[in-house]
Amino acid sequence: MTGPERPAKVLLVDDRKDNLLALEAILQGLPVQTVGADSGEDALKHLLVDDFALILLDAQMPTMDGFETARHIKRRERTRHVPIIFLTAADRDSHLALRGYAAGAVDYLTKPFDPWVLRAKVSVFVELWTKTQQLAAQSDLVKVRDGELRAVGVAVDEAVALLKAGLAAGGEVGGSQVEKAIAALSRIR
C-alpha cells in the first residue's frame, strides 16, 4: 500500500545529530517519514527491517564511512536498488564524487547545498518509489485476477463436459449430470 497507510521512508545517515535534525527540517512537509541513523552500522540495521524509498548518506563518518556503507547496501539483494544521495562537507573534490558514484550513489551533493534542490531531488525519488509500489500492487492484483479467471475456465469446462455427458446418457443419469453442471456453474459466480 502507498499513501497514508504506508508513506515513503527516507533513511538519513549522519554521525552528527545537528545534521540529522537539519535534514529532517529540510524534508518537513514532504510526504515522507524520515528515519535517522548516526552511523553506517546503524543504517544497515535499519535496512534489515524497513524498506526505504531513498537514503541520504553522509560520505565522511568515523568507523564505517559512507562509501563502505553504500557498498554494503548495494551488495544486498533487498537493498541494492534503493537510491543513495551522498552528502558531504568535504571540498569539491571530484575524486570523492567519483568514489560516491562508484559505490552506487545516484547523486553527490557538497555542503552547503541548496535545501530546495535537495527537497526537489527527494521528491523525485519518492514519486518514483510511489509509482513502483503502485505498479507492484497492480501486478499482484493482475495475478490474483488471472488465477480467478483460470478457475472460472476450469469450472466452465467441467460444466460443459457434464452437460455433454448428460445429453449423451439421457434419462435419470442425464438429469444428474445436468445438476452437477449447474452446481459447477454456480461455484464460479
Automatic annotation (TrEMBL):
* Alphabetical list of InterPro entries matching this protein: Bact_response_regulator, CheY-like_superfamily, Sig_transdc_resp-reg_receiver
Q: Which PANTHER family match?
A: RESPONSE REGULATORY DOMAIN-CONTAINING PROTEIN, STRESS RESPONSE REGULATOR PROTEIN 1
Indicate where the modification 4-aspartylphosphate is found in the sequence: 58
This one is known as Two-component system response regulator
- Entry-linked Pfam families: Response_reg
The protein's matches in Gene3D superfamilies, at most eight in alphabetical order, are given as:
3.40.50.2300
Q: Which SMART domains match?
A: REC (SM00448)
Q: What is the lineage of its organism?
A: Bacteria, Bacillati, Actinomycetota, Actinomycetes, Micromonosporales
Show where the Response regulatory domain sits.
9-126
Q: What keywords are assigned to this protein?
A: Phosphoprotein
